[in-house]
Amino acid sequence: MSAFREYVCVVCGFVYNEAEGLPEEGFPPGTRWDDIPDSWVCPECGASREDFEMVQV
User: Fold this and answer.
1) Beta bridge pairs of residue 52
2) Choosing a second label site near 47 at 20 to 30 A (CA), which of 2, 6, 34, 37?
3) 15-17 vs 52-54, strand pairing mode
4) Taking the CA of residue 2 as centre, how many other CA atoms within 13 Å lie in the half-sphere pointing to its CB?
């Protein structure tokens, strides 16, 4: 299994970390970016999933 990644919202800087998930949004720790629905929006600014970019490690 590949390492967990982080994705950052290019609008507000919010970071989604796959290892931590987002339990308050219904995504338990370990939830991969590809498993988050396309309809999900940034909890900070409401930007769409398309406005997130993978953080290069």
Assistant:
1) 9
2) 2
3) unpaired
4) 9
Strands (E), 1-57: 6-9, 15-17, 52-54
Residues 5/15, Cβ–Cβ less than 8 Å: no
The neighbour count for residue 20, using CB atoms within 10 Å, is 15
How many residues in the chain?
A: 57
* pLDDT tens-place string over residues 4-45: 999 999 999 999 999 999 999 999 999 999 999 999 999 999
